[in-house]
DNA sequence: TAATTTGGTTTATAAAATAAACTGTATTAC
DNA sequence: GTAATACAGTTTATTTTATAAACCAAATTA
């Protein structure tokens, strides 16, 4: 049986990736609202996605406020698509 | 964002449920082989699925050997289908 | 009859997810 | 002007989960 990518098989990380797959760029605040997660949890999970090379994270200032912008990378996109494939197979949705 | 049923959002439990959805009855040994899990892990996860009322577990003797037969219950079937729906929405598979 | 296999369960450990507490800057209220 | 609140996060601690390791009883094989 095919292993599901453990990095993606997490509620919050999967939700984040799903958003980024469709939106192509989103900031911390937006992701937090959309996923209704806590800031702490989101911060940790974004770090993990970043460490895996699945997303890019860019911190900038908008006026005087910090802004954390996330984008899915090519590697992340590929991993997500593979995950969906694996899941379909597992669930026999195909 | 819809919460994914945490009882099903686990690699091994999901695999077990997926098998039971298609096979309708399977014993411990079969599930162990199909999922390539360890006996300990499988035992624990089957307990959880049973405790949730998602599967029925029947222990019997075949000759002199014990046999643990699992079936998905109506509740389990429903939960699984709901989970797949939720996942599709989350992944925007449609 | 001693060692191994089968079919598991129980307990211990490792890894995750989540929450709580904290930081620094900015804004608002008095 | 300064005390209090809010914003945008990060870090650390706690809880929950998953997994692995150790164990058990009965049966089989050497």
Explain the overall architecture.
2 copies of one chain form a homodimer. Chain A has 94 residues and is of the alpha+beta class. The first copy, chain A, has a single domain (11-89), classed as Winged helix-like DNA-binding domain superfamily/Winged helix DNA-binding domain (Arc Repressor Mutant, subunit A, Orthogonal Bundle), CATH 1.10.10. Chain A contains 4 helices and 3 strands. Chain A has helices at 11-23, 28-35, 39-51, 74-91, and strands at residues 26-27, 55-62, 65-72. Chain A has a 3-stranded antiparallel sheet with strand order 1-3-2. In chain A, a hairpin with a 2-residue loop joins strand 2 (55-62) and strand 3. The interface between A and B is medium-sized, with 21 and 21 residues. Chain A binds a DNA duplex (30 and 30 nucleotides) through residues 6, 10-12, 28-29, 32, 37-45, 47, 59, 64-68.
SSE topology sketch:
2 copies of one chain form a homodimer.
Chain A (H helix, E strand, L loop, with lengths): L10 H13 L2 E2 H8 L3 H13 L3 E8 L2 E8 L1 H18 L3
Antiparallel strand pairs in A: 1-3, 2-3
Chain A binds a DNA duplex (30 and 30 nucleotides) through α2, α3 and β3.
């Amino acid at each position: 049986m095919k292993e599901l990518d453990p990095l993606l098989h997490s509620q919050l990380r999967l939700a984040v990736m799903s958003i980024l797959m469709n939106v192509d760029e989103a900031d911390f605040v937006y992701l937090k609202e959309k996923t209704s997660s806590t800031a702490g949890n989101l911060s940790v999970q974004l770090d993990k996605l970043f460490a895996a090379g699945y997303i890019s994270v860019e911190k900038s200032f908008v006026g005087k406020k910090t802004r954390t912008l996330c984008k899915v990378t090519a590697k992340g996109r590929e991993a997500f698509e593979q995950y969906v494939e694996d899941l379909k197979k597992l669930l026999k949705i195909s």
